[in-house]
Amino acid sequence: MLTALSMLAASPMFFGLNLRHNNYNCPMEALPIDVQNLKKIFAIPRKEPGLMGAVKGLFKPEYQYKTAVNDLSFQVRKGEVVGYIGVNGAGKSTTIKILTGILAPSGGQVRILGRDPFKNRVANARDIGVVFGQRTQLWWDLALVESLRLIARMYDVPDSRYKTLLEEFSETLELDELLSKPVRTMSLGQKMRAELAATLIHEPRIVYLDEPTIGLDIMAKQRIRDFIKRQSQERDVSVLLTTHDLGDIEELCQRIIIIDNGQIIYDGQLSTIKNHFGTHRIITFETAETLNTSRLLLPRGAELLSAEGQKLTLKFNRSEASASQVAAHIMQQTDVQDFQLQEPDLTSIISQIYQGALQREKVGA
Question: The organism sits in which domain of life (predicted)?
Fold first, then answer.
């Protein structure tokens, strides 16, 4: 049974937004990533219990089929950082494995810099870099500098270029104190900085980042975000970022692709989805005395969220009233000592999309 979002994906419009197609059309030769009608179906052996079931499965296996990716089409331009988000099991990891050449698609077409990534895995590997937040490409017992040197040799990076990049990465990622340390002795944040250096030491044209800031503190996250942003801007590296940390998306991406049940339900500018769903703001007032909310007149487009003691919190629609109008309306009725305006963040916006989809499914059921 399709989830709510996947059911809505079949419609050309979802909450007034065009979800099926985008305007990111570029000449074929300029596209780092070009995905057309991609499909991936897994055949999963169906096992019956007991010895007889095992024997039957050995000689006459039965399968159930799971569609992990269904009719995906999208493109990523040179130097573009695209957020690729969705719930667990939506099809994100399967897509990345197909783009990197690990898996062959069941249907459709994938071109990475004009190549089929599965049929041209060696050539494809030279032009891409991959960071998995839960896996490492570094040698556990070697000093970091030795791992980086080995990776550079594998990719035939000239010694002079390797030294230049090592100096640059040591400065921007603060690796000087880590170069002589075995990877196994590093903290999680240090390992992720080391992983980024290892991924970019051969100067790939495309980088896939899977949860690059998972488990990191605020300072470590910001350092890694700044580094990724710099690589994209200065070297025109194309980045496809999958993450559950929407802070990464807001910091790095102008465009997002939302996927659910193997289908794209939104592909477009982050600003568009913010403007469309982020219409409500929250404003909190601190008053000189306890309010009697039964006598309080609310401005047009506003609703009362809470009133505790001398704190009053309202939610209002910015298309119907501005923050100054709401504040002036409340100030005419009571003595306001201070107020604070809260803008909607991406987390709340994505939650609205999922909640709205579920409500529509219930209405249509």
Answer: Bacteria
